[in-house]
Amino acid sequence: QLQLVESGGGLVQPGGSLRLSCAASGFNLDYYLIAWFRQAPGKEREGVSCSTNHNYYLSYADSVKGRFTISRDNAKNTVSLQMNSLKPEDTAVYYCAADAADGSGWDYWGQGTQVTVSS
């Protein structure tokens, strides 16, 4: 079965950290562009971070730059998002997505994981 499954969300206090994981099954993530998106209640979905295939290039939204880090573990076929210095405005459902960069758009989406930053 071809799918992405996120894990690692939860409730954390402001200033805390969480590590999200996105595990792929049925395909090799190394050949895909991988992105993390998030959507807060009442807001548009926004891109958070992106890693091109083979990890050639990484990018981050200005709102998370310096606090979030995207990384790959090819042996585990996973992509992680380390989130530090979390703020209440980081509260959202976080999704990972994979794109084969063949012009057809995002091929796979995870089910989402809730991140809540609150005291």
In words, what does this structure look like?
With 119 residues, the chain is mainly β. It has strands at residues 3-7, 10-12, 18-25, 33-39, 46-51, 58-60, 68-73, 78-83, 92-99, 108-109, 113-117. The strands form two sheets. Strands 2, 4, 5, 6, 9, 10 and 11 form a seven-stranded mixed β-sheet that branches. It has a four-stranded antiparallel β-sheet with strand order 1-3-8-7, with no helix packed on it. Strand 9 and strand 10 form a beta hairpin. The radius of gyration is 14 Å and the shape is globular.
Number of helices: 0
In one word, what is the shape?
A: globular
Q: Structural class, judged by helices and strands?
A: mainly beta
Distance between the termini: 39 Å
Tell me the β content: over 45%
Order of helices and strands: EEEEEEEEEEE
Please compute the radius of gyration using only Cα atoms: 14 Å
What characterizes the major β-sheet?
Answer: 7 strands, mixed
Mean pLDDT: 95
Total beta strands: 11
Instruction: Name the helicity range.
Output: under 10%
- Poorly predicted ranges (pLDDT <50, ≥5 residues)? none
Task: Give the SSE layout.
Elements: E1 3-7, E2 10-12, E3 18-25, E4 33-39, E5 46-51, E6 58-60, E7 68-73, E8 78-83, E9 92-99, E10 108-109, E11 113-117
Parallel strand pairs: 2-11
Antiparallel strand pairs: 1-3, 3-8, 4-5, 4-9, 5-6, 7-8, 9-10, 9-11
